[in-house]
From TrEMBL:
Pfam families: HSP20
Protein name: 18 kDa heat shock protein
Domain SHSP: from-to ranges: 35-147
CDD domains: ACD_sHsps-like (cd06464)
Length: 159
């Protein structure tokens, strides 16, 4: 049995290496955070103007037929599925980081949308939605009428 001298720094280096490994193994990229239902979240850009919302979703590797867009009230939901490539006999993967599986994102726009005039385009893995605001959601100017002022003038002149 050998007696070994205690070195406090040896354990500290091991702890640092363990923490580094923990961070490297558990690091999750933005946009791939699982939802509570097991699907990954889609990264979105949402822009609002006076007349419409423009939403862009990154869906690389997803076929347009595998995308489902629904609008329920003022809540927009985009679902998509990217299918994994089949492994072929004799191939050995060294690295496999491209995401596949089901992806979903729901956002509340806060304003009613005219679904009849909505437009969806899909090009180079980017889905672009143009959702015009419903007429009742657009701001309206209220003009002050002259009838009340005329009556006030008439009442004061008649006395």
């Amino acid at each position: 049995m050998a007696i070994e001298r205690w070195d406090p720094f040896r354990d500290a280096v091991s702890l640092r290496d363990a923490v580094n490994t923990l961070f490297q193994e558990s690091f999750v990229r933005p946009g791939s955070v699982p939802n509570t239902n097991g699907t990954a979240s889609l990264p979105l850009d949402i822009c609002e103007s006076e007349n419409e919302f423009v939403i862009r979703a990154s869906l690389p590797g997803v076929k347009p037929d595998d995308v489902q867009i629904t609008l329920h009230g003022d809540t927009l939901t985009i679902r998509a599925e990217a299918k994994a490539e089949e492994e072929k006999k004799g191939e050995h993967w060294h690295l496999r980081e491209r995401r596949f599986g089901s992806f979903q994102r729901s956002v509340t726009l806060g304003t009613p949308v005219n679904t009849e005039k909505a437009d969806a385009q899909y090009e180079h893995g980017v889905l672009t939605l143009r959702l015009p605001k419903a007429e009742e959601a657009k701001p309206r100017q209220i003009r002050i009428g002259g009838s009340r002022q005329a009556r006030v003038g008439q009442e004061s002149g008649s006395k």
